[in-house]
Specification:
Blueprint lengths: L1 E2 L11 E6 L11 H9 L4 E7 L5 H14 L3 E6 L2 H14 L7 E5 L1 H5 L5 H21 L3 E2 L8 E5 L3 H10 L5 E5 L16 E2 L10 H20 L3 E2 L3 E5 L2 H17 L5 E4 H7 L8 E5 L3 E3 L1 H14 L3 E3 L4 E7 L2 E7 L2 E4 L2 E4 L5 H7 L7 E11 L11 E4 L9 E4 L5 E4 L3 E2 L10 H11 L11 E12 L5 E4 L5 E5 L5 H19 L23 H10 L6 E3 L4 E2 H9 L7 H8 L12 H12 L21 H6 L1
Parallel strand pairs: 2-3, 2-4, 4-5, 7-8, 7-19, 8-15, 11-21, 19-27
Antiparallel strand pairs: 1-6, 9-14, 10-14, 11-13, 12-13, 16-17, 17-18, 20-23, 20-24, 20-25, 21-22, 22-23, 26-27, 28-29
Helix pairs in contact: 1-5, 2-3, 6-10, 6-13, 7-13, 15-17
Length: 631
């Protein structure tokens, strides 16, 4: 940036101050009118006013009109964090003819209303922050953007649901896009081991990034489902209460959800609940959220990545980030285990490792700690004695509780618990954890069919120090964070992608592609077809007639398609998560060796080189001479 020549004498500013209510997020704790009144008395302030939502189209028009009417040379907006709408407001003032760097934002939401309960204290602090921003504008000078050679490439770190959603959103623009993932496959972290629920959005605190992106993300999935062929069932969800005290909590959730913009929420009585889910004998009522659903997260992450690839993006797996290169205090390249990758913008979607990645770049603005959640999965035969959709217990401050949910594939699970961990690799299943899950689930369904359980597993959630998502530009130029993506991160992913890409484009402008391909070609799911449709497929390709996984009716043709597809399977678990071969009652006991043979053949490698999941997860070894002699 270069400051414009002012002839050596600083111009006296004509400043406008605009104070946002943010609905009730600010106005409930900060006396907005008093902030306006005090701002109007500050030197150089020629206009001050407030409005419900300054970031809205009408709010932006108020700012534009005032700039023109009062001849403003500087603007102060008292609102939420600059990380939310700084790019938006700079565009707003620029559209009215004002240099965008003559804008300052006073954060009176996160720094005042959200941390103070006393209105007088919060208001006093908001006035101080407003005065500081006004003083800063007096010292500002108009800036013009300078030019220097950069590689117009955006690099995404992390191949989970958030990273792949960001990659797809970036691929809509005239940018070179690449995603790097440290594991051999995509979605190998939190995305592969979570509750697979698309939340309605009533749980997160009103005004938080979680709340905003949850509701928006839920709506976006309704559009994306058809475009990408996403495996989603909009089942709705119940939050079940087993006491009158818990019914009071449901009322609080209802009111919060309505403030968050969730539609269709309703509290049901016992009879209405049992009409939806008959196996809940202890229930007295429930909160019904019709906009919730269940999905297959791994397949969604792969679909996001495949769509990005068909639009010119690149995905590199088994590629660990080791450092960053900077020039003039901004990132210009990323050091990886596969070499140096030049990039003007880097998006950190590193899951539980996001804080470590940020620190490599010099950003210590947030921390992440892992929270483990354990699950028990039941065979499909148990669904009749469990639930048809999603049933939560009444939540507490730490967790949504041990829920009972039937997946899109017909298996039901119970879990997760919530164990704060130190080790970011510890996904072990524990005896105490299993007891906790079973005992909690029995409060809703006393007679759990534990004889029908087929496996247990655990996943780690990335919890930020603030408890909210970390989204937006880092203090380090060129770095953008999408971190702390615990629940409802899966639901929020496409909305988080929108916010990140908006911030990236403000830093590195790019035009929209005219030829962006939004939809993906769809492969048939053999087990969901009629006998007539199956017969026609077999006529075209005889490998559809060769069933490899009997539990899930997965054919050899489907396994080969999963291996050969963009971002295709390279491991046994990669095949399992794309096709469900190995996810049935026998958990791969029958089909595992055949899947291994197919992988070896299609990848052109010996059987001993076929891996289960990670780089050190060999399943088979060559016989040595001693073994052969004994034989």
């Amino acid at each position: 940036m270069h400051s414009e020549d002012t002839g050596g004498e600083r111009k006296v500013q004509r400043i406008g101050v605009f104070v946002c209510h943010c609905g009730t997020n600010i106005a409930a704790t900060v006396d907005v009118k008093k902030v306006v009144e005090m701002a109007a008395k500050e030197p150089g302030v020629v206009h001050a006013e407030d409005y419900q939502y300054m970031c809205s189209a009408s709010g932006q028009n108020i700012i534009k009109d005032a700039i023109k009417e009062y001849g403003l040379t500087g603007v102060v907006i008292c609102s939420c964090s600059p990380r939310m709408h700084e790019a938006t407001f700079r565009k707003t003032v620029q559209a009215a003819g004002l240099n965008p760097y003559m804008l300052e934002i006073a954060n009176i939401r996160e720094q005042c209303s959200w941390i103070h309960k006393d209105m007088a204290t919060a208001t006093e602090k908001a006035i101080i922050l407003g005065r500081a921003a006004i003083a800063k504008v007096h010292l500002n000078a108009p800036l013009t953007a300078g030019e220097s050679p950069v590689t117009k490439r955006a690099l995404v770190i992390g191949g989970g649901i958030v990273g792949t959603a960001i990659l797809r959103e970036l691929s809509k623009y005239d940018l070179k896009c690449v995603l790097v993932e440290k594991e051999l496959d995509l979605a190998a972290g939190t995305t592969k081991a979570n509750s697979a629920i698309l939340h309605a959005g009533f749980d997160a605190p009103t005004g938080s990034l979680k709340a905003v992106t949850n509701v928006r993300g839920n709506k976006l999935y309704h559009e994306l489902q058809k475009e990408l062929g996403l495996d989603i069932e909009w089942t709705g969800s119940l939050v079940a209460a087993t006491s009158e005290e818990e019914m009071q909590t449901l009322q609080e959730l209802l009111e919060r959800g309505q403030k968050n913009g969730v539609e269709g929420l309703r509290i049901l009585n016992r009879e209405e609940v049992l009409a939806k889910e008959k196996n809940l004998p202890t229930v007295v009522g429930a909160l019904w959220a019709p906009s919730a659903g269940v999905c297959w997260p791994f397949a969604m992450a792969v679909a996001f990545a495949q769509c990005a690839v068909q639009n010119g993006a690149e995905v590199v797996t088994d590629c660990r980030v080791t450092g960053f290169i900077k020039e003039a205090d901004r990132i210009t390249a990323v050091e990886t285990s596969k070499g140096l990758i030049k990039a003007a913008c880097v998006i950190n979607a590193g899951g539980v490792y996001a804080d470590g990645i940020a620190r490599l770049a010099g950003d210590e603005s947030f921390t992440i700690h892992p929270r483990r959640g354990e699950y028990i999965l039941f065979d499909k035969t148990a669904a009749a004695s469990l639930v048809k959709g999603v049933v939560f217990p009444t939540p507490n401050k730490k967790s949504k509780g041990i829920l009972i949910c039937t997946t899109t594939h017909g298996n039901t699970f119970i879990g997760p618990n919530a164990q704060d961990m130190e080790n970011k690799e510890d996904t072990a299943v524990t005896l105490t954890g299993m007891d906790e899950i079973m005992n909690s689930a029995r409060k809703l369904i006393p007679n759990l069919p534990m004889g029908a359980s087929i496996t247990e597993f655990a996943g780690l959630r990335a919890v930020s120090g603030s408890g909210d998502f970390v989204i937006g530009a880092s203090p380090v130029a060129g770095l953008f964070n999408a971190a702390g993506m615990q629940s409802p991160g899966l639901t929020a992913a496409p909305a988080v992608a929108e916010m990140i890409v908006e911030a990236v484009l403000a830093y590195c402008p790019a035009a929209v592609k005219a030829d962006f391909k939004a939809a993906l070609p769809q492969n048939p799911l053999f087990h969901r077809l009629s006998h007539e449709e199956q017969a026609k497929l077999i006529e075209k390709n005889r490998l559809y007639g060769r069933v490899i996984c009997r539990c899930e009716t997965v054919t050899e043709a489907e396994i080969i398609a999963a291996i050969k597809a963009p971002c295709g399977a390279k491991t046994v678990d990669g095949v399992k998560r794309r096709t469900r071969a190995g996810m049935g009652r026998c958990q791969g006991g029958f089909c595992g060796p055949r899947v291994t043979q197919i992988l070896a053949r299609e990848l052109g490698i010996p059987v001993p080189e076929v891996l289960k999941e990670r780089a050190d997860s060999h399943l088979f070894y060559e016989k040595n001479s001693a073994d052969e002699g004994e034989a």
